[in-house]
C-alpha cells in the first residue's frame, strides 16, 4: 500500500471508511504534508493554492478532533467569499457523513440574518463563514466561541485584500487562547507573516507547489495600445471560440465596462465584481455554470474560490499586478488533463511586469500575431443555453425532478434539451437549449408543479 494512503493516518474508522467510499485513496501533497501536523494538534501555516486538496486537509482535521456529544461550537472556518464558504461546508458534510449528528452551519454576508439567528439558537459543532458576518454575530452576542478548539483561516491573503483585518482581530479576541490555528494562503505577503506571528504558537510551516501543470496551457501574449484592448479581445474571442472563458480585469469599474462592451458587440457576457448584490451574483454564477453565458468578466477577488469546472480559456485584459496572481489566473484552465488557453494583453507601460513574468517563466516573451480580422467578420459566438428563473424554490418544496418533469412531460421538450437545474431557497434556475426556450417557457407557465402554477421568466442581459 502506498505511503501516501489515507489509512496510514491516525483517523477515526468512520472517517477512513467514508474516504474509501468516496474514492479518496492517496493524499495530495498538501494533505500528506499538513495532515500529520493537524492531527497532532499543532498550529500550521500552509502555502497552497486552490485545487490542491487543502479543504479536505483541514476538514479531516476538524472532524477527527470533534466531540459530537458536546453540542458546542468547536471549529470555525473563515473564508473570503460566500461561494468558498458554501463549498467548504459541503466538503465537511461530505467527509463527515458517516459520523452521525454533526451540525455544520454557514454564516455569510449577503444572506438574511434572521434565519442565521434562529440556527445559532439551536447550536452547531462547526461554523463556516465570512469574516464580516461572523464579526457581526460575535459583537451582538449571538455566537459563542468559548469552547472553540480549532480556528481555520482559509485563503487568508484574500481576506486581507478584501479589508477583513479588523474582523479577523475580533474573531481572535473572542476565541480561547488555548486553541489550534490553521492558516492557508496561496501567497505569503508580509501582512500574513505579521498575523501568523501574533495569533499562532510555534506554527509549523509547509509550502506546496501547485500540482497544476502549466505545460497543458497554451499561453499567448499580445502587445496592444491601451485603446485597442477591447477590439483585440473581440478578435481573440471570435478566433478561438472558447465554450467558457474568464476575462480578468484589475478593477471593478473596468470589469463592468468590459462586460457591457462585449454585450454591445453581441457576446453573451456577464460581470462579476464586489459591487454586485448577492442575488445578482447568484444569477451570474448560475448562468455561467449552466452555459447560458460563455464569458465571465471578473476581478481576481470576485473570482477567488469559484468552483468552475472545465474552463476553456483565460483572457488577461490587463496583466496582473504581480506574477503569482498571473499564475493563479491562468491555472484555472487546462485542468484534469484538458488543454487550456491563456491570452494576455499588454502594452509598453507593462514592461516591468512583463520582465518579472519573463523571469518567472525562464524565457523571453515574444508577442503573438493577432488573428486576421477579415476572416472573423463572418463569425458569431453564441452561448448554447438560456436560463429560466422560476419563482419558487426549496421553501415551496420544489425539487429538480419536479422541474424536469414539467419541462419534459406531454408536449414538452426532450430531456437532452434541459441543462443544469439549480434550486435555491425561493428561486430555481433551469438551463434549456437556446432554440427550445420558448417551448420550455410555455411548459412552466401553463403547467403545474406540486399542484400549483409558478411564475417563470427568461433571464437576459
TrEMBL record:
<feature type="domain" description="Helicase C-terminal">
    <location>
        <begin position="216"/>
        <end position="376"/>
    </location>
</feature>
<feature type="domain" description="Helicase ATP-binding">
    <location>
        <begin position="35"/>
        <end position="206"/>
    </location>
</feature>
<dbReference type="GO" id="GO:0005829">
    <property type="term" value="C:cytosol"/>
</dbReference>
<dbReference type="GO" id="GO:0005524">
    <property type="term" value="F:ATP binding"/>
</dbReference>
<dbReference type="InterPro" id="IPR027417">
    <property type="entry name" value="P-loop_NTPase"/>
</dbReference>
<dbReference type="Pfam" id="PF00271">
    <property type="entry name" value="Helicase_C"/>
</dbReference>
<keyword id="KW-0067">ATP-binding</keyword>
<dbReference type="GO" id="GO:0003676">
    <property type="term" value="F:nucleic acid binding"/>
</dbReference>
<dbReference type="InterPro" id="IPR050079">
    <property type="entry name" value="DEAD_box_RNA_helicase"/>
</dbReference>
<keyword id="KW-0347">Helicase</keyword>
<feature type="domain" description="DEAD-box RNA helicase Q">
    <location>
        <begin position="4"/>
        <end position="32"/>
    </location>
</feature>
<dbReference type="InterPro" id="IPR014001">
    <property type="entry name" value="Helicase_ATP-bd"/>
</dbReference>
<dbReference type="InterPro" id="IPR044742">
    <property type="entry name" value="DEAD/DEAH_RhlB"/>
</dbReference>
<protein>
    <submittedName>
        <fullName>ATP-dependent RNA helicase DbpA</fullName>
    </submittedName>
</protein>
<dbReference type="InterPro" id="IPR001650">
    <property type="entry name" value="Helicase_C-like"/>
</dbReference>
<comment type="similarity">
    <text>Belongs to the DEAD box helicase family.</text>
</comment>
<dbReference type="Pfam" id="PF03880">
    <property type="entry name" value="DbpA"/>
</dbReference>
<dbReference type="InterPro" id="IPR014014">
    <property type="entry name" value="RNA_helicase_DEAD_Q_motif"/>
</dbReference>
<dbReference type="InterPro" id="IPR005580">
    <property type="entry name" value="DbpA/CsdA_RNA-bd_dom"/>
</dbReference>
<feature type="short sequence motif" description="Q motif">
    <location>
        <begin position="4"/>
        <end position="32"/>
    </location>
</feature>
<dbReference type="GO" id="GO:0003724">
    <property type="term" value="F:RNA helicase activity"/>
</dbReference>
<keyword id="KW-0547">Nucleotide-binding</keyword>
<dbReference type="Pfam" id="PF00270">
    <property type="entry name" value="DEAD"/>
</dbReference>
<dbReference type="GO" id="GO:0016787">
    <property type="term" value="F:hydrolase activity"/>
</dbReference>
<keyword id="KW-0378">Hydrolase</keyword>
<dbReference type="InterPro" id="IPR000629">
    <property type="entry name" value="RNA-helicase_DEAD-box_CS"/>
</dbReference>
<dbReference type="InterPro" id="IPR012677">
    <property type="entry name" value="Nucleotide-bd_a/b_plait_sf"/>
</dbReference>
<dbReference type="InterPro" id="IPR011545">
    <property type="entry name" value="DEAD/DEAH_box_helicase_dom"/>
</dbReference>
